[in-house]
Amino acid sequence: MIGIVNENQINRSGQGQLKVLLIIVAFAAIHHGLTLRAYADVALWWDEAHTYWMVKDGFKTVAAKCASEVYPPLYFWILSGWTSQFGYEEWALRSPSVIFATLTIFPIYFAAKTAAGFRAAVIAALVAACVPLLNFYAVEARAYGLLIFLISTAMCFYIQYLAGPKRTRALVGFTISIGAALYSHHYVVFLLPALVMGALVFNSDKRCRLAIAILIAELIAFIPYTPWFLVALGSQSGTEWIALYWTGWTPVLAIMQSIEVFGFGGVYPRYLWHMGPSNRIPFIGIAITCAVIVNLLIDNHRNNGRKVLDPTPDFAMVLLSAILIPLFCAWAYSWLRSPIYLVGRYDVISLPAFILILSIGVERLIESRPRSCGYWLVGLIIGVGLWTSTSMIVHAKKANWRNFDRECAMEVNRIAQPNDLLVCIAMRRIVTEYYLDRIAPNKVELTSYPPKMNQHPGIYYDPSYLKSDSPALSDALIIKMEINKKLADGKQVFIAHWQYPGDAVPQVLYQVLVSSLKATPVGNAPEIALFRLTKSGSQENLSEIPSAP
Question: Which of 127, 147, 313, 366 has CB 3.0 to 4.6 Å from 3, enough for a Cys bridge?
Fold first, then answer.
């Protein structure tokens, strides 16, 4: 059985174990720090620039923006305080995630140590230090680094509570950490029933009492989160593009895609396109991961058959519940109410439990098989994990293609005069605005088409804007009036073009402008898709503006 090992199984002193842990933490900090350094010159992408927009106006505005954008506020409050001291450069926005990813090693280590002893704790800490998904979120200006840390902390207190003996302290820690996780991301809601179910399948004669206590702790944690939950429940924004995910790609495969990401063996999935290609050994992550977990469950089943009254705590089914039940809950919500996006979000929610069950499974292999086999497996997992995650550093050196919005901002700053107008089409605003604020704040006036991008720069989906009752045409006429007024005042007007194949939204605006304006490319790099608009008596067709890459 898997449980707390006795002193005969640990031949290291407490001080020696602490040194091992600190060495692994230092390794993780160096690993994440090198990745952050490699990404120092890589431009923010849309979601990171949206994070900047959430915090740029200071701490007091964060709650209102979070309510508008349907996000819990904790990460943005923390980042707002951080940026008030360190500024808004790329490294400043991304560095809190490095701190949280590094701190994640501690709760992962202590959770695994409680569940299966020192050796499993070392394996879990090493896996957490080099897992590609965590290494990526460690250098991204989004809430997921904080979220993984908080869920790992909650899992640590949760396992300590189930194992005892200091259950009151563990239960308080669990309540606080799961409450903070809820304040970081709405998807934590799907983890709550998994933890209650995990307590029910725990091999203890007090399982019902434990499950009730966990449920009460979750309800207490949920109370301050309730207003944000109600906001999320009443929001339907973004469901159109999520619906395409459900019809265009089978969500049933989410678990295998997640295992591929967790298990270090495959390419990064499509939702992490901005990471670039990873080093790959096809299917090795899925194969190793599934084999380790299946062997663990079979071994536990055999032991349960031989030792019905074995009092040793068994966390295999507890952790498996934390991996699978959130996925089932998300499926049910999507089918019964409205579709939600799983990949990326589900991965983060279940990553700590996955690391723990993988490390416990490897520990079981070392214990029950020839030790050389188990240690070779540990080396393979860590080696492939490092090889895969460090491909981010190589990719960062070749990532200039990501910077066309930054180049657009630099070009506008070079040629624009004060109070000139820049019209940003669709998603061109969010990153361009960030770099204009950095380079020349308030030099030019910004407006967007569709205009909703002015208030919600991170939300865009074209089909919903082209419905029969949509304001697309009237919005385009308003933009035309703004442009004509600027030109009449002797100001320059620029347009940052956006168009993906099949996106018809820009054409609505261009058809309104075509009768009186012409577009001239600006700059030497056509990929930045920046044009100057001037008066023209000709019928030049703005719909022929070339697409940005």
Answer: 313
